[in-house]
Design a protein that fits this description.
Length: about 140
């Protein structure tokens, strides 16, 4: 791990976004509340929060840091589920990895809950794709 001992604790915030491309029929089922396993967005929000809190256990060289806020939002745009995670801390290092992890796990959780509707006749996922996970903003200094 990188030595951050000399760095001061300051407010830090990062936001990450990503997408899960789905079949239009699956999006309709989500909108209608007809997913057999339950509401994928509520489960994905909790999964994303838990993932952010466990990032240093998942990513080997990531420092464990105290998180002061984790917010995970999901929405549907056309045939895509978009996840956006914002993570905050007062620490010696940033929270980009926590925001990325929260976003990725939220999307994975949605996929897990809707996978039965995405399979083709051969049991494959030709339409389904997690894509474009990236940090969209990062701040250091006084909180907003």
């Amino acid at each position: 791990m990188v030595d951050i001992s000399a760095k001061p604790e300051v407010h830090r915030e990062a936001t990450a976004k990503g997408q899960l491309k789905l079949r239009k029929e699956t999006v309709t089922l989500i909108k209608q509340g007809k997913i057999e396993k339950g509401d994928p967005f509520q489960v994905a929000k909790v999964a994303g929060i838990l993932a952010a809190k466990q990032t240093s256990s998942i990513v080997p060289l990531c420092h464990p840091i105290p998180l002061t806020s984790v917010k995970v939002d999901l929405r549907i745009v056309d045939d895509v589920v978009e996840a956006e995670s914002t993570v905050k801390t007062k620490a010696q290092t940033g929270v980009e990895m926590e925001a990325l992890t929260a976003t990725a796990v939220a999307l994975l959780s949605v996929w897990d809950m809707i996978k039965q509707y995405e399979k083709d006749a051969d049991g494959q996922y030709p339409y389904t794709a997690i894509r474009d996970i990236r940090v969209t903003s990062k701040r250091k200094g006084e909180p907003r």
